[in-house]
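Teaching note: in complex prediction, the entire set of molecules is handled at once rather than each chain in isolation. The prompt given to students was simply: 'Predict the structure of this complex.' The entities are:
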Amino acid sequence: MTTHQKFASRALITGCLSLCLLQSLIAQSAGDVDVAVVVHPDTPVSNLTLAEVRKVFLGDRQYWSTDVPVVLLIRAPVARERNVVLKVIYQMSESQFKQYWIAKIFRAETATAPKVVYSNDMANELVTAIPGAIAFIDARDVRPGTKLIRVDGRLPKEQGYPLR
Amino acid sequence: MYTRLLLIFSLASGTALAQATASLPEQQESVQSLIDRIQQLEKRISELEDHQRKQDAARAASTGLQTLTEIQGSQEKATLAPGLHSEHAPSSTEVREAEVHYPSLQIRGFGEVDFSATNDKGSVSGFNLGQLVLHLASPLSKKVGYFGELSFTARPTGYDVQVERTIIRYDYNDYFKISFGKYHTPIGYWNTAFHHGAWLQTTISRPEMVKFGGSFIPVHFVGLQAEGSLPSGGLGLGYSVGLGNGRSSILSKAGDSGDSNDNRAWVASVFARPTRFYGLQLGGSVYGDKLSPDPGRNFGEWITAADVVWTKERPEFLSEFANVHHRDLRTSQTFNSQAFYVQLAYRLPWLESKWKPYYRFEYIHRPANEPVWDVSGLSSVTDLASSTLGVRYDITNYAAFKGEYRNNRTGANEPRVNGAFFQTAFTF
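The expected output is the structure of the full assembly:
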């Protein structure tokens, strides 16, 4: 094998390895942020299973208790929190999600669709202010004044937390 | 020569690799720049919110404590006062936007344009406007809501306007919600899942057994209905029971202006949505009524139905079965008619997931001597075996094209009919 051949093959191997490493680093940095479920501090729940969270966000559970209706808050399209919710909770695409809520209201199963929030700050503030409100927030942005919900008994950043 | 070839190959590979690795960082840079931009915008929103909050606080200090109720006049609204006094009080603009005002009327429309052509002798091919549907929803308070559905159907002499549903509902909690008005009867799945919005359903038309204007099951129901979920853990049980007027003397219509006899119809249904199988729904329903289609002729009606559906789109699976039992109250003679359909669809993952092919088989059987279906001298229910093969293309999130080929046989010993059907259905 000539020097050129050796150089070319080494460059090829090094390039491939670098590419793999870069990809794994990018994937890790984008995926290691958990999405927290927060509710108004007076909401009478502190632990929900993933199936119960799904039931709430599908609008199938509409009351926390007799006098406290659930108020759904969801981030506007493109936000990472919304993508996680659509993928893990709804298991729907953006268009399926829109169609789901149009159909839900059309079937007279609920009178209102989830309210759209445009930032984690806005979600934090509305959850603090509106009784019965529930939202998904980047775990790093959760503020005091909201109540953090355990999902399947786990908090964000704990091993096995399902919303990431 | 060999060395040159290898060098050219190495250079070509290196260039290709460089291009591949260059495009990835470019994409990552684009994504990163978008993320940065979103973060900047979120930061900017925060700053604006803080600014607004300070302005609100200054205004409140100068004018005294002005309650949200005063700002909003007499409009009733969700309770938000405790939050306003907390350390992280939201800006009043945000809260005003997020809170529900009562009443809060939302209107949504559904429309369709159809084309059909068949080899049935006597039928005419061409376009028709189908139904234009307006849906109204308005929460009246935290626990009371109104829902309405109006349809405008093109007829040779003009437009036929119908109140398809009008419902006022009081929610006590998730386990008990009571409502009054006109409903789509909760028998089976389709009748309460898709209503009059053709855009919502995958196919162009409803199955024959639940067709609008059809008689096999009573599509509408006027009265009261209680519904809710049942404490059942992961089984996800729900129920619905109703009491109402049932069919009028015209079997396809509900008794909007009053019952045709002194006997009330009743309906009870139960369904399960197991949490373990998200998307699966199993249901069963029973309906009872006394029919008086002609003076002096009374029939007992007993409908039992069951459905199994998988509501996701990869695949989508819908199926239901119903048996309609009629008993002549004078002669005690009984008659049973059956109908079912099975529909399978699949949202293709390619081409932006816009294509959804589907197939449906449906079947109706009625006894030849069944008197109720022929009470007016015309057969309101006939034997049917039908296959539908089609595809739906979603042009946008709110409009779709559908194309179908149908092959069906209605009535015993009748020839099969082939047809092509097209529809654009939309919501606005």
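Point out the following to students. Residues 15-98 of chain B form one domain. Chain B has two domains: 15-98, 108-427.
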